[in-house]
Design goal:
Strand content: 5-15%
Radius of gyration: 24 Å
Number of helices: 4
Shape: flat
Oligomer: single chain
Structural class: alpha+beta
Mean pLDDT: 87
Distance between the termini: 45 Å
Order of helices and strands: HEEEEHHH
């Protein structure tokens, strides 16, 4: 699999994006300006996703590989493949990321709305007023999105708490 990964990284001129994650140019639609092909290596496979919408068969064909080449254990019969343990999601860490996203949107919206209050609509051209109102509308949309993200974060924390209480109660019974 490392040979396949090396081939993909070289062919797409991928740049490191994070641990075992790269962004490259999709050869399927001829991307040269934007890196829109996400490449990720996991324990047992290589994941490819094109944000421009190319399908996996199209991407593999353009790279000159087969889809089966993306799997580490493709040469093993299905019955002898190792069984993977599922990791329990870290809901608290996910909730924190949702909170950060909400905070970012709220701060941006607050700055825009504060600036909009200082504007004098009478001195603005129609184009300027239209542009300013577009920014204000986006600020209100950001506030709504922040509320939704905060709700998701609260739900994740509640689920984590409830799951922890269930585990604790089952330990007490046993």
């Amino acid at each position: 699999m490392t040979q396949v990964l090396s081939h993909i990284l070289e062919a797409t001129k991928a740049c490191l994006y994070g641990p075992d994650r790269w962004m490259g140019h999709c050869l399927s639609h001829g991307s040269r300006k934007h890196r829109d092909l996400s490449i990720r290596r996991t324990d047992d496979r290589i994941l490819l996703y094109d944000f421009a919408g190319c399908s996996l068969p199209e991407i593999c064909s353009a790279l000159g590989i087969h889809q089966r080449d993306l799997f580490l254990d493709a040469s093993f019969p299905r019955s002898s493949r190792p069984i993977l343990k599922l990791k329990r999601p870290d809901r608290v860490a996910s909730a924190f990321l949702f909170e950060l996203g909400a905070l970012d949107r709220r701060l941006r919206a607050d700055r825009i709305l504060e600036a909009a209050q200082k504007l004098d609509a009478a001195t603005m051209s129609h184009a300027q007023l239209d542009r300013a109102l577009g920014y204000v509308a986006q600020a209100y949309a950001d506030i709504e999105r922040a509320e939704m993200l905060e709700h998701v974060a609260d739900t994740l924390r509640e689920r984590d708490y409830a799951e922890g209480m269930d585990r604790e109660q089952s330990r007490r019974i046993a």
